[in-house]
Amino acid sequence: MELWYTEKQTERFGITAKIKQTLHTEQTEFQKLDMIETEEFGNMLVLDGMVMTTEKDEFVYHEMVAHVPLFTHPNPKHVLVVGGGDGGVIREVLKHPSVEKATLVEIDGKVIEYSKKYLPTIAGALEDSRVDVQVDDGFMHIAKAENQYDVIMVDSTEPVGPAVKLFEKGFYEGISRALKEDGIFVAQTDNPWFQKELVSKVHSDVKEIFPITRLYTANIPTYPSGLWTFTIGSKKHDPLTVEKSRFHDIETKYYTKELHTACFALPKFVADLIK
Amino acid sequence: MELWYTEKQTERFGITAKIKQTLHTEQTEFQKLDMIETEEFGNMLVLDGMVMTTEKDEFVYHEMVAHVPLFTHPNPKHVLVVGGGDGGVIREVLKHPSVEKATLVEIDGKVIEYSKKYLPTIAGALEDSRVDVQVDDGFMHIAKAENQYDVIMVDSTEPVGPAVKLFEKGFYEGISRALKEDGIFVAQTDNPWFQKELVSKVHSDVKEIFPITRLYTANIPTYPSGLWTFTIGSKKHDPLTVEKSRFHDIETKYYTKELHTACFALPKFVADLIK
């Protein structure tokens, strides 16, 4: 018998992956959580029927969320990750020696628990002494914070379930208050093929709040369309004018200092979404 | 009843697309040809069980094959397309006013016939007076040509069936002879996630023949991994040092003059394949 996991990424298109076994399945307080072992991509975390991360291609998303803002900020000391309970973004954040503290606020403790169990190469970084893990509502955390963080990274699911309010303008206003005066934030903002309106809307909202707003992309095979967007809002530092001397060496599999700039060169149809 | 087209892109991973109907299916002299009408991507040409092109995302591949070499060459007059019977690359080639003649050598006349019938926005350009369509073996055509073309584009299927010999070093040697003294060629060279060895091998072969060898990528949602590579071999002109004044305006949906350079900034794991 062959088992295949099939995900409808839209009502009309999807991916399918041969699996060895289902490792865990549970309806948590917030969402449906599935951990499956696939043949092509290794262990795969699925939330509400959407691939969140896989052992094989996780490095793209996690590196690109973390390193673009962290190399843009001249001295990031305190970093907040909203969501990201699998720990992958935190792992990348810790590669920057300037970071003294990395706070993770994940609403669903089960994501952390099962990532530690089944995705140890991703979640292992959560044990680091510089990391403060809080199982809490990221939206509320942001609402209470003021002038506190150098860099904030929003590593949410797609705007379904608990993540809906993480795509609202009020949330970005809260992020602006939670950041220090030269702070910078990044959010994953879905794909430009099937979610054109979302990409446009977030960019337009962020642009009303932050003086510097930028969109960049990366290739993630298990995400819809294979092309993912990230939106940056920055109070002072522009990711496109980083001094080259600032790029210290870190070990990566996707991010390079050349890509740091090149990833902002958008395909024309994507550039048109944020005009 | 719901109909879905599912393609195993590897033995362990694939895509699935909801379809309205099968428009045509035929075993030609060379390959299995299917034309299906999908809901998400419009009409889709499938050869030997692999998506070749779709109405929705075809522009990426066709623009990126054509415009990167054509803007690199200072005065491309005679262009050869090997394969590409759907006509999409030819359509893009004709956007360059310097081009006096575009020769298409497609081995399978049925691909041309059914592309004209079911993909008219792609294949329509084949009727242009500057185009010379030849139903013939591209490998043999190259073997006979000498000092004839400014730019050659290899728009083949993956290395299965009739396309196998289009990935051999002898073919690239033939291309070098078929090109003029400042000629340039590009070939689609599959994806770097599931076909690592192929990407490495082609680059290494081309590098032994051409003084300038470059790899670039583009995002194509219906192709395996969503990330596609293209290999350039050039006798004289480097795509990375094109004078900015040379970029005349053309209408595109993916290619931009910024992407012309940015598409050569490779993810680290891809750059490692061609070291």
UniProtKB/TrEMBL annotation, chains A, B:
PROSITE patterns: PABS_1, PABS_2. Its EC number is 2.5.1.16. InterPro entries: PABS (IPR030374), PABS_CS (IPR030373), SAM-dependent_MTases_sf (IPR029063), Spermi_synthase (IPR001045), Spermidine_synt_N (IPR035246), Spermidine_synt_N_sf (IPR037163). Residues 2-235 form the PABS domain. One of its GO terms (biological process) is spermidine biosynthetic process. Keywords: Cytoplasm, Polyamine biosynthesis, Spermidine biosynthesis, Transferase. It catalyses: S-adenosyl 3-(methylsulfanyl)propylamine + putrescine = S-methyl-5'-thioadenosine + spermidine + H(+). Pathway: Amine and polyamine biosynthesis; spermidine biosynthesis; spermidine from putrescine: step 1/1. GO terms for cellular component: cytosol. Spermidine binds at residues 62, 86, 155-158. Pfam families: Spermine_synt_N, Spermine_synth. S-methyl-5'-thioadenosine binds at residues 31, 106, 137-138, 162. The active site is at 155 (proton acceptor). One of its GO terms (molecular function) is spermidine synthase activity. Belongs to the spermidine/spermine synthase family. NCBIfam families: MFS_SpdSyn (NF037959), PRK00811.1 (NF002010), speE (TIGR00417). HAMAP family: Spermidine_synth (MF_00198). Catalyzes the irreversible transfer of a propylamine group from the amino donor S-adenosylmethioninamine (decarboxy-AdoMet) to putrescine (1,4-diaminobutane) to yield spermidine. Homodimer or homotetramer. This is Polyamine aminopropyltransferase.
